[in-house]
Amino acid sequence: MNSDAFFRFISPSHLYFGATIFGIITVIIVLMIYLFLYVKKSRFRIKALVGAQLNEWISDALTEDELPRIAIPNDISHYLKKPFMRQFLMDNLINIRKNVTGDVATSLVVLYKMLGLKDDSVRKLKSLVWHKRARGIYELYMMQQKEELQDILEYTNSNNEFVRMEAQTAIIGFSGFNGLVFLDQLTYPLYEWQQIKLLEQLNAVNTGDMPHLPLWLSSANSYVVHFALKLTEIYQQFQVHDDVVPCLESKNDKIRNQAIKTLGSIASENTIEIFKQHYDKETVLNKKAILEQFVVNGTGAELEFLYDKLDEEDDGLKLEAIRAIASIDNNAFSELEHTSAGDDILISIIKQVKYENAV
Question: Which residue from 318, 309, 304 is spatially nearest to 347, judged by alpha carbons?
């Protein structure tokens, strides 16, 4: 009964047809996999075969006085018509460029242009495919093609994170601190890891002027503001102290926290008073950051304010307040112990700070 009902809806011919289609699809998939592996293996063989010869030719070319007159061997020239081999050569040149300087680096750039590889990079730069565009920017930067700076600058505000990152890295690499001009128009995020990367890059070049710093500190992009605060702190930009103060009113806790640290590093005579005015409005984490600034910038005038903080509920704030008191007044421990008599927690914190100060 069940068998009859089944074949009433699906005839054997339908099953045979379905099995045939499935078999054809399976054969096609197997052939595609085989073709993919064959091509991949063939390319690997070619790279292995030509790679050593190619690197030897590059080495010989770099020792010549007049690179433009160097002839490319026919067997190498034949392979360089294949896009994957041109990319292989490009990658080799970049790897060498990472490890050389001076005349050798200059010769590499000449060789890069002579082989038409710059044209390949420019085509990638103009590609609609994001990973090709990012690769093109990277190649032009690594081969120091500064004449492409304006085109690359346009991509520092790209909607693609990876293109944007490569462009920003390239601009800083080309122009140092002047390359930070891309912050003027940046509307996309500048993530923490990217900020760290840019700061490491800037650390390798001579410190330059940052005339747009006040503009960045008031940017509508919170990432730009946060990065500008870091720049101000690290490079001790005292002239923008008053431009940093409004950042303490930001709705972003992270920006306020960085503003506290930045103001502490470029403190003026009224900075501590500014901190005192903002203290009660802050989160516990930012209150702690403020109290840490008293350790470096506090004076005897702040002792009363700091003693009041011993009544805070958070023990971490009590610890920072006692550290600040001890840094301002070397003889404060007896007064602290007298004030804290009967409060086991405060006594424990005082002992910790005494240990830190080797008292």
Answer: 318
CA dihedral (96, 99, 105, 110) in degrees, to 10, reads 20
Measured CA to CA in angstroms, residue 74 lies from 56, 60, 71, 247, 302 at distances of 15, 16, 9, 64, 81
pLDDT confidence band for 341 (50 / 70 / 90): confident
| Selection from 60, 54, 149, 71 nearest residue 107 by Cα | 60
Average pLDDT over residues 40-57: 64
CA angle 238–244–248, rounded 5-degree value:
145
User: Which of 88-102, 148-162, 235-249 has the least mean pLDDT?
Assistant: 88-102
Would you tell me how many other CB atoms lie within 10 Å of the CB of residue 66? 7
Residues 262, 229 contacting (CB under 8 angstroms): yes
Whether 213 has a pLDDT exceeding 90, the answer reads: yes
Whether the CB-CB separation of 85 and 46 falls below 8 Å is answered with: yes
CA distances in angstroms from 75 to 22, 49, 50, 195, listed in the order given: 45, 11, 9, 46
R_g (Cα) of the chain, nearest Å: 32
CA distances from 121 to 54, 62, 112 (A): 20, 21, 10
Q: Which tokens is 320 given?
A: 């920072």
Q: pTM score > 0.85 for this model?
A: no
Give the separation between CA 311 and CA 75, rounded to whole angstroms.
82
Q: From the CB of residue 135, how many other CB atoms can be counted at a distance below 10 Å?
A: 21
Distance CA(177)–CA(154), nearest Å, equals 17
Total residue count of the chain as it appears in this document:
359
Contact 278, 248 (CB under 8 A): yes
Q: In this predicted model, what pLDDT tens digit does every residue of 172-211 receive, in sequence order?
A: 999 999 999 999 999 999 999 999 999 999 998 888 889 9
Amino acid at 97: R
